[in-house]
Write a structure and sequence with these properties.
Shape: globular
Strand content: 25-35%
Largest sheet: 5 strands, antiparallel
Radius of gyration: 15 Å
Number of strands: 7
Oligomer: single chain
Number of helices: 2
Structural class: alpha+beta
Strand order of the largest sheet: 6-5-4-1-7
Distance between the termini: 28 Å
């Protein structure tokens, strides 16, 4: 078990050292499909989700920060990547994290890189 833990920590450090955001030319077009869709400043998931040890569900807890803004049905967005149940999006109002189920018309985006969350 210590060897597995050491390898896991090493992989995380290497990934963090090579952290890059997904390049803009890999982003996908999408449209918000829900009224008053909350957009959050940060992902609820992190390293555990990134390396496949388990992601949180779409449910948020009372301890999670509130949304920074709400998107409206029909708002165009650029989807940078996904992590767990959320897309990282860019819109006229800014960038943030929105539930995957709240965005339509998206070709499968890439998974988020370590620098995206």
């Amino acid at each position: 078990m210590p060897v597995v833990l050491a390898l896991l920590v090493t992989a995380m450090l290497v990934s963090a050292g090579a952290a890059h955001a997904v390049p803009w030319y890999m982003w996908r077009d999408g449209v918000v499909s829900e009224d008053e869709a909350p957009v959050y400043a940060e992902s609820v998931d992190g390293w555990a989700c990134h390396i496949g040890l388990g992601c949180r569900s779409a449910e948020r807890t009372p301890d999670d920060p509130p949304p920074i803004w709400t998107a409206q049905r029909g708002d165009p967005v650029q989807v940078e990547c996904y992590l767990g149940e959320y897309y990282k999006i860019h819109a006229d109002r800014g960038e943030g994290w929105i539930l995957i189920s709240y965005v339509a018309d998206v070709n499968k985006p890439v998974g988020c890189y370590a620098g995206d969350f």
